[in-house]
Amino acid sequence: MKNFMQKAGLRAQKALLKKIDTSLKNKVLKNYILLIEKEKNFIIKENKKDLSFAIKKKLKKNLIERLTLDKKKNYSNKRFFKKNN
User: Which has the closest alpha carbon to 35: 77, 73, 79, 85?
Assistant: First the structure.
């Protein structure tokens, strides 16, 4: 997944230099949302590692709260695509 995300990031940088139409942009964003939803458990597991490290480094509570991801929070933007597609 790391390799995929690196390649996606490079493609995103190239895309910034070009003008693309809204439907293509929305299609790309929708694919990212689907990928994030598919990898949600892995992302949360890795986030727990980040949180442990942040606590060890004694980061401020507000920073740790901003770093925290969990299943209770709704990160889905599906309703955006229902309106725009």
Answer: 77
**Number of domains present in the structure of the chain:** 1
Domain residue limits at 47: 2-84
Q: Could you report the per-residue pLDDT of 5-59, keeping only the tens digit for each?
A: 888 888 888 877 777 788 988 998 899 889 988 988 898 899 999 999 999 999 9
pTM score, two decimals? 0.57
Separation between Cα atoms, residue 26 and residue 85, nearest integer Å = 8
What phi and psi, each to the nearest 5 degrees, are found at residue 53?
A: -65, -45
Task: Determine the Cα angle at 56 with ends 51 and 57, to 5°.
Answer: 95
